[in-house]
Amino acid sequence: KVLTGVDDLQQVEALEMQVDTRENSLGSFGLHVPNLRELKLNNSLLVSVRDLGTTLSHLHILWMACCGLSDLDGISSCSSLKELYVAYNDISDLSQLTWLDHLEVLDLEGNNIEDINQMQYLRFCCKLSHLTVEGNPICLKPNAESAEEPDYNYRAEVKNLIPHLEYLDKIPASQT
């Protein structure tokens, strides 16, 4: 109530805060704000997405940029997500995103995605239209083992793996 400035938490649809989940658990947080649609946790310290608990299934937009995340394990409990912003973390595995059927916008800028094949998990997000991956190792070479290849074009590779994508790094995906 202090954070939102309202007495009736049913009215809260958007909230911005910084948390350190080593000190404060958010496990049942969603039960208190059942109509929350947008949650901004940028610059928080989240050990794991699991620290958000399983009660945020009604969220549509989630910001967790610069939160120290190394994986997205537990993101499937946010099953209604349409937009996910997790830029500038240490994420390398995208397999958990396959469960997000409503995802339309995904920002993965500045993470640690080293294998272009991680993009194949995003083809299961059939509504995904906007993807940002600039600043990841895959923009330079297809995987950690390969040398930088002058003919390598990550935009063409991503478009091939996610054919329904409309925008890649804020440019029409058709422009490879």
Automatic annotation (TrEMBL):
Coiled coil: none
Annotated keywords: Leucine-rich repeat, Repeat
Alphabetized Pfam families for the sequence: LRR_4 (PF12799)
InterPro entries named in the record: Leu-rich_rpt (IPR001611), Leu-rich_rpt_4 (IPR025875), LRR_dom_sf (IPR032675), LRRC56 (IPR040091)
PROSITE patterns listed in its UniProt record: LRR
Signal sequence, renumbered to the chain: none
Protein name: LRC56 protein
Gene name in the database record: Lrrc56
